[in-house]
Amino acid sequence: RKQRSAWSVFDETQQIEQNSQKTLRYRSELTDALREHQFKLYYQPKVDLQTGRIISTEALARWHHPEDGVVPPIMFISIIEQSGKIREFGRYVIKTSIRQLSFWKSKGIAVPIAVNLSPYNLLDPDIVTFTQDLLKKYDIEPKLLEIELTETATSLHLQTISKSLNAFKEIGVQLSIDDFGTGMSSLAYISSLHVDTIKIDRAFVRDMDENERHLSIVQTALNLAKAFDCTVVAEGVENVTQANLLAALGCHYGQGYYYSRPIPEEQFTAMLQFSPTL
Ligand code: C2E
Ligand code: CA
Ligand code: CA
Ligand code: CA
Predict the structure, then answer these.
(1) Boundaries of each EAL domain copy (predicted)?
(2) d(CA 269, CA 259)
(3) What ligand 1 atom has the least distance to the C-alpha of 80?
(4) Residues 35-83: tens digit of each pLDDT
(5) What are the tens digits of pLDDT across the range 211-257?
């Protein structure tokens, strides 16, 4: 193994130090950031692999930080989860998305939005009525809203989470299992809940052409989807080769930089107006 120089060790230590200082700073800035709406939703299209049409979109959070610029979610979601503000944040994301749907509706656009919820959000007993009230208030069809659920390493109370997910299903909201293939509980969810969509994690899409095991996971997702009557979205589609292979395997939908990066609201709305949708 390559010997690391004293410098690189020093560099690394400094990096860790800087990051933990950043974590502390971010934690102390959260309240203001939420109040001042510094968190924005960026949108990335989900595309029909055959036709290239936009069939849906995923809302991905970004922090427009006054000093640090655009901060990605890996830098702040776990801080929010640990700070006790994840409930407020989850509700903010849902509200922002429903208002976005309402804005699009006023322009004659009906593209569903998928939001990412932390499993902690599903422990919030009122999250479903909160959502239902907003859908009513803005007169939005519930099927235009989709919940993307990622399993966390810490296995939270599956029963409580399932209860909320079932309640979301009952009011007509769609349900997606995110990052299929990376965790232990997706199978439990898929077999016990009415899941509408399985999203294959991009780690498997990336090298499925040369990694047989990863190709098997992609195929497993497609088989499960057939058995449980749900759709599959392949994440992280970065080139035409991947898009073609996925389509050949019978995967209908894809998402990734090949089609578009996640982009700010105004840009995405412009894209919707100039590209064919559903
Ligand atoms: P995710 O839900 O799995 O989202 C997909 C991630 O892959 C996004 O990263 C997206 O920008 C990225 N991505 C999309 N296409 C490609 C591609 O072709 N190549 C590569 N290399 N990457 C691609 P992002 O936006 O940094 O989000 C990271 C994670 O943060 C998300 O993973 C999600 O788990 C979490 N997250 C994002 N927004 C929210 C939110 O509003 N609430 C919660 N609780 N979590 C969120
Ligand atoms: Ca997601
Ligand atoms: Ca994902
Ligand atoms: Ca992920």
Answers:
(1) 23-276
(2) 15
(3) 44
(4) 999 999 999 999 999 999 999 999 999 999 999 999 999 999 999 999 9
(5) 999 999 999 999 999 999 999 999 999 999 999 999 999 999 999 99
Strand partners, 57: 45, 113
Ligand 1 neighbourhood includes 181 CB (under 6 angstroms) = no
**Atom of ligand 1 at shortest range from CA of 201:** 3
Cβ-proximal residues to 8 (8 Å cutoff; 6+ apart), any chain: none
Burial of 78 (0-12, 13-18, 19+ CB in 10 A): middle
- Three-state DSSP class for 117? strand
With contact defined as beta carbons under 8 Å apart, do 218 and 205 qualify?
A: yes
d(CA 97, ligand 3 centre) in Å: 18
Sign of the Cα torsion 73, 262, 92, 87 reads negative
CA of 178 to the centre of ligand 4 (A): 7
pTM, two decimals, is: 0.93
Q: Is the CB of 179 under 6 A from ligand 1?
A: yes
Q: Which of 43, 77, 40, 79 is nearest to 61 (CA)?
A: 40
Query: Does position 278 have pLDDT exceeding 60, yes or no?
Result: no
Assess whether the C-beta atom of 262 lies below 6 angstroms from ligand 1. yes
Q: How far apart are alpha carbons 49 and 197 in whole angstroms?
A: 15
**Residues contacting 62, CB < 8 A, separation 6+:** 39, 40, 41, 42, 70, 71, 72, 73, 262
Radius of gyration of the chain (CA): 20
Atom of ligand 1 nearest to the CA of 117: 44
Q: Report CA(148)–ligand 2 centroid distance (Å).
A: 5
pLDDT band at 153 (very low <50, low <70, confident <90, very high): very low
Which positions ≥6 away from 260 have C-beta within 8 Å? 44, 45, 271
Name the residue among 140, 151, 154, 54 with its Cα closest to residue 105: 140
